[in-house]
Amino acid sequence: xxxxxxxxxxxxxxxxxxxxxxxxxxxxxxxxxxxxxxxxxxxxxxxxxxxxxxxxxxxxxxxxxxxxxxxxxxxxxxxxxxxxxxxxxxxxxxxxxxxxxxxxxxxxxxxxxxxxxxxxxxxxxxxxxxxxxxxxxxxxxxxxxxxxxxxxxxxxxxxxxxxxxxxxxxxxxxxxxxxxxxxxxxxxxxxxxxxxxxxxxxxxxxxxxxxxxxxxxxxxxxxxxxxxxxxxxxxxxxxxxxxxxxxxxxxxxxxxxxxxxxxxxxxxxxxxxxxxxxxxxxxxxxxxxxxxxxxxxxxxxxxxxxxxxxxxxxxxxxxxxxxxxxxxxxxxxxxxxxxxxxxxxxxxxxxxxxxxxxxxxxxxxxxxxxxxxxxxxxxxxxxxxxxxxxxxxxxxxxxxxxxxxxxxxxxxxxxxxxxxxxxxxxxxxxxxxxxxx
Length: 437
Hints:
two-stranded antiparallel ribbon; 8% strand
């Protein structure tokens, strides 16, 4: 409205031309020109950006498909599907190119297909890159484990532990190697570091540390290093106050009951807490110069009418028998229920009938019962059932860790075996009740 009331005149001289118009018309023309320039610039920009946006969209689509193939490939590896893993591995490599993440899938696929050489090549490539070094080393460890190369496993595990000591897999692998080599001090440090780094809770590691320290004490004792053996055995009991092997080792390290009264008191406290026939046997041996009666009285004072299990009761009965306390021995034996009659029970009754009652016939009948009685508890492997003469941290048969426990050994069944004579004129012979292990 204002421009209509004030139209004004504008004259332009340019390149020999004279242009006369109103000011409002000129203003509209300028605005139209600016809008046209902006529209043209927009069109030019869209035309210039279109190829790049096209290729970016194509790349993004390939990446999406590639990561999808990668995910399916990893799932196929986990499921053990060789063909599917191979197909998705090729597809991921094609879509994502030679990316680090596709090398891992390629390595896993090669390992799944049994191509150890290709798998090692891929894992070596990953281990040479700072970002994927740990993953590559772990892959090489698994390859070495599969091929049985223990030297390479040990070297690579140490390398992986330096890279990532908080890895539970690496800690367990390193610990297994250390106990297999009998490196008990290193194994104890590994468990301590695992607790410190929160890799494993202390409550879960306490039993293992007790076993490792007991094995260390056993090793130091064999080396003649009694001081370190004593420290290790007492440390084992700090972690597990009822750990019988550690108490046995500590008792065996007491050479003089007078000068080592503190150690004797330590073992007596253990016996009051957890009386065990083997520990009591080792304890009684400390008093070799005493009479059998004194030893029995010492045991009575130590246990102080404590409720004990049948094994300890049998040990007390044997001690009473040695001291010629027939009534005491018989009362303790007869307190054991019949279903718990073991070989030691029968042998003890046989000895008692022979010495007290002079009944050789009854003594012999108890000896016969011993062949059918339950086996006495002993050190045996809970994994393979192998019987050991003494406790050890590793089973000598199956080499499992912390499987030697105090238990009943596997029963020897009585079977009938038929032996057919080669001579047709001879009748078939039957051998009954042959004990077969």
